[in-house]
Amino acid sequence: MKLVVNAWCGIQVAALAEVIGTMERGGLDRVSCFKVLGAAPITSPALQGVGILMVAYKYAPMFPISLVEKDFRYVVETAHRLGAATPVSSVTQSVYAKALEHGLGGLNTVGVA
Asked: Which of 13, 42, 99, 107 is packed most tightly, with the most Cβ within 10 A?
């Protein structure tokens, strides 16, 4: 269950980082983007907290990227042994692996932004 919960959280964090990053490239700032996303009824309280850290560039480690990536590897490996497909978890694991390659493993999970 721990891996399931961590995967669900990590998927949401990676998706939020992607959306905010895309909006930034389009000329919008993080705060404005998250005001809209944070108020959406589909944004969970947990993701609202993550978003606040993300837009404030607060990357102090609480759940470091290195541990998130490790958990995603375990999720994908376990699912593979069970014969379950993990397209979303596999792609999300690659997001965290790329962050590790860039030396961001010690940052909080929101550092993928």
From this structure: 13
> Mind listing the pLDDT tens digit for each residue in 41-66?
999 999 999 999 999 999 998 999 99
Residue 97: which residues within 8 A CB-CB, separation 6 or more? 69
Task: Tell me, rounded to whole angstroms, the distance of Cα 50 from its chain centroid.
Answer: 9
Q: Are residues 65 and 105 in contact, defined by beta-carbon separation less than 8 angstroms?
A: yes
The torsion region of residue 29 among left (phi > 0), alpha (psi -120 to 50) and beta comes to beta
Distance between the two ends of the chain, CA-based, in angstroms? Answer: 26
CATH of residue 52: 1.10.1040.10
